[in-house]
Design a protein that fits this description.
2 domains; 14 helices; Beta-Lactamase
Length: 407
């Protein structure tokens, strides 16, 4: 198809410098430019309360935007109330036009309305009726105040005129606003009441939408937390079942005629590996010292140096053997704070968390079992019981091996 012809002396308009689609980088067509200009013009012509409907759905932002709509253009003071989940009006924001009135605004914020309040906003929420006080007298303030402190704060504001509007959205009251003008402005008129009532409808929808989004987000977080808890319980149950099965298998395997070395190796491969330690060791007492009979994951140089461990050695294994008490260290900080002087071997192995458990048989210390983890790790009570149970199985297997050696 041939391009359209133009009358003599006419030409297609050129693209304005920089005019184009920022996303794709291509120039906009005439139709696209016209549509964009129309949309931008319509946006500028919209009343601000209509533009609020497409603003942020964050509740705190919506509340600030609604207050900013009234102050300072319409009123000197704005008190915004929202009805909570129990149906109780709660003041959520205090807005004021004079920056020097911050201390007075703080006095209002310190007085939180409760279920029994009979202030102007609460009454408008109950009967859905706006109220206009063109001339505020001391009697009106006393009637509007809840107590002496509230009356003192209202008297300090010295409102000349008050306008109270309920916020109704989807046929239910979601809140209310109390607007005040002071002496240097004209009082609210009947025309102001009509205009403000018309404006309150979209503003109520803004607040209602934002509250709905907030509640939906909270419900989603609660559902996610509940799902996480359920998933945690399910995984915990699965891990507990797996530990039980490993223990049952170890009981059968370690009941066979095994050497001490074989029993220690089987305990790591068939049971302790479930906890994913980076390294471990079983040391048994022989001739008054601890001898390593299994040390998976150890560097060879340290294995040669520490193959025999004296009872007073700076080692967690020796400490657990001497005291016959388990040691649970979830981080390097725990190691330094609790065993700084007896942790030379642990520091050399460069692990982040440790478990050292005595190996007993008939309440006699036969040695010690140690596990090292390459990340901070706090074993829970079930995991600690699991390690202790395996240490007991190693102790029984070692005791039987020694009896067979004597026979």
């Amino acid at each position: 198809m041939s391009p359209p012809t133009l009358p003599p002396g006419r030409s297609l308009p050129k693209e304005a410098p920089g005019a184009g689609d920022a996303a794709s980088g291509r120039p906009l067509t005439l139709a696209e430019r016209a549509a964009r200009s129309l949309a931008e013009g319509r946006h500028h012509d919209e009343p601000p309360e209509i533009r609020l409907l497409t603003a942020s759905l964050d509740e705190a932002d919506a509340i600030r935007s609604v207050v900013a709509h009234w102050v300072p253009q319409v009123a000197d003071w704005c008190f915004l109330y929202m009805v909570d989940a129990q149906g109780i009006p709660r003041r959520v924001q205090v807005g004021h036009a004079d920056p020097t009135q911050g201390a007075l605004a703080a006095r209002f914020r310190a007085v939180a309305p409760g279920p029994g309040w009979a202030n102007l906003a609460s009454q408008a929420i109950r009967d859905r009726t706006p109220r206009l006080f063109q001339d505020v007298t001391p009697e009106v303030l006393r009637w509007a105040a809840h107590d002496d402190d509230h009356l003192a704060a209202l008297t300090s504001v010295a409102p000349r005129s008050i306008l109270v509007l309920p916020f109704v959205s989807r046929d239910r009251v979601v809140g209310a606003v109390t607007l005040m003008r002071c002496a240097d402005r004209l009082p609210f008129s009947e025309e102001d009441l009509v205009a403000a009532t018309r404006t309150a409808r979209p503003l109520a929808l803004v607040l209602d939408n934002a509250r709905a989004v907030t509640l939906a987000r909270a419900a989603r977080r609660e559902a996610e937390q509940a799902a996480d808890v359920e998933r945690h319980h399910r995984l915990s149950a699965e891990r507990a079942l797996l530990r039980l099965r490993r223990l049952e298998s170890l009981v059968i395997s370690l009941s066979a005629a095994l050497t001490e070395e074989a029993a220690a190796r089987l305990a790591f491969e068939g049971g302790l590996a479930l906890l994913e330690p980076r390294l471990g060791a079983v040391a048994l007492a022989r001739a008054g010292v601890l001898e390593l009979v299994s040390a998976p994951g150890w560097p060879l140089d340290l294995l040669e140096r520490w193959r025999t461990i004296p009872a007073d050695a700076p080692s967690l294994m020796a400490e657990a053997w001497r005291t016959q008490r388990p040691i649970w260290l979830s981080s390097e900080r725990d190691l330094e704070e609790r065993y700084g002087a007896t942790a030379e071997l642990a520091r050399a192995l460069d692990q982040q968390a440790w478990a050292a458990v005595p190996i007993l048989a008939d309440d006699q210390p036969l040695g010690a079992l140690v596990l090292g983890f390459d990340r901070p790790r706090a074993l829970d009570e079930h995991e600690r019981a699991y390690v202790t149970a395996i240490a007991a199985l190693i102790g029984m297997a070692a005791a039987r091996a020694r009896l067979r050696a004597v026979e």
